[in-house]
């Protein structure tokens, strides 16, 4: 692996005389979060499972983080340019409604007081971002693609029909969001 501050190549054709410079691809992590045993909470995992079956652009990685927030935090700190989280959110819409929200880094509190703990076994996406910001590993742009759930209780596997019907649309929405990020365009938020 080439250290981040080392050039990718040297000499002619790589930024030397008579050639164009080689720039690295934008690194984007798409991470599904949630618990597949809590019905619609498995939405993020199902979306990234389907994304993993697709041909993705260079530099785009997918991860089913499940409920492993600490694993997600460590993966984010590898140095991604952007993070797309796929999860649930309750915003009052009809079940299956999809939302795109860009996270403002300034809205994420990174202060950790002496004696204050972050529980590594209870790291929801907000806590993951707080931890990553606290250790100065913020991944550039962070976008959440979320779905309005119908049911997360009682415990059991399988998405409700309303949320299951939104998975393919969510896959396309994530791919469109990744395209906007890679092109440097503003991400549309709902």
Describe this structure in words.
It is a single chain. This protein has 190 residues and is an alpha/beta fold. The chain contains five helices and five strands; from the N terminus they run E-H-E-H-E-E-H-E-H-H. Strands 2-1-3-5-4 form a five-stranded mixed sheet, sandwiched between helices. Helix 1 crosses helix 5 and helix 2 packs across helix 3.
Please summarize what this structure is:
It is built from five helices and five strands, in the order βαβαββαβαα. It is an alpha/beta fold.
| Estimated radius of gyration | 18 Å
CATH C-level category: Alpha Beta
What is the total domain count? 1
Mean pLDDT: 83
The beta-strand count equals 5
Main-sheet strand order equals: 2-1-3-5-4
Please name the fourth-level CATH homologous superfamily: HybD-like
Count of helix runs: 5
Poorly predicted runs are 1-19
Q: Shape from CA axes?
A: globular
Oligomer: single chain
Strand content: 15-25%
Major pleated sheet: 5 strands, mixed
Q: Give me the secondary-structure category.
A: alpha/beta
Euclidean distance between termini CA atoms: 39 Å
At the fold tier of CATH, the topology name is Rossmann fold
Helix amount, in percent?
Answer: 25-40%
Task: Please name the CATH architecture.
Answer: 3-Layer(aba) Sandwich
Q: What is the N-to-C order of secondary-structure elements (H for helix, E for strand)?
A: EHEHEEHEHH
Characteristic terms for this protein:
Rossmann fold, alpha/beta, 190 residues
Topology:
Elements: E1 28-33, H1 43-52, E2 60-66, H2 69-76, E3 82-88, E4 98-103, H3 125-134, E5 141-147, H4 161-164, H5 167-183
Parallel strand pairs: 1-2, 1-3, 3-5
Antiparallel strand pairs: 4-5
Helix pairs in contact: 1-5, 2-3
């Amino acid at each position: 692996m080439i250290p981040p501050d080392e050039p990718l190549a040297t000499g002619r054709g790589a930024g030397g005389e008579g050639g164009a410079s080689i720039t690295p691809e934008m690194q984007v992590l798409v991470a599904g979060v949630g618990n597949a045993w809590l019905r619609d909470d498995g939405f993020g995992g199902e979306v990234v499972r389907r994304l993993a079956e697709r041909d993705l652009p260079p530099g785009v990685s997918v991860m089913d983080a499940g409920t492993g927030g600490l694993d997600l935090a460590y993966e984010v700190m590898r140095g991604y340019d952007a993070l797309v989280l796929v999860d649930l959110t309750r915003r009052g819409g009809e079940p299956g409604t999809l939302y795109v929200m860009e996270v403002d880094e300034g809205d994420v509190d990174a202060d950790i007081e002496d004696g204050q703990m972050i529980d590594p076994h209870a790291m929801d996406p907000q806590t993951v971002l707080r931890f990553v910001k606290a250790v100065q590993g913020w991944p550039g742009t962070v976008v959440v693609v979320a779905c309005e759930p119908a049911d997360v209780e009682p415990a059991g596997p399988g998405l409700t029909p309303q949320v299951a019907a939104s998975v393919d649309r969510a896959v396309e929405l994530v791919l469109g969001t990744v395209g906007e990020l890679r092109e440097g365009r503003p991400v549309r938020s709902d």
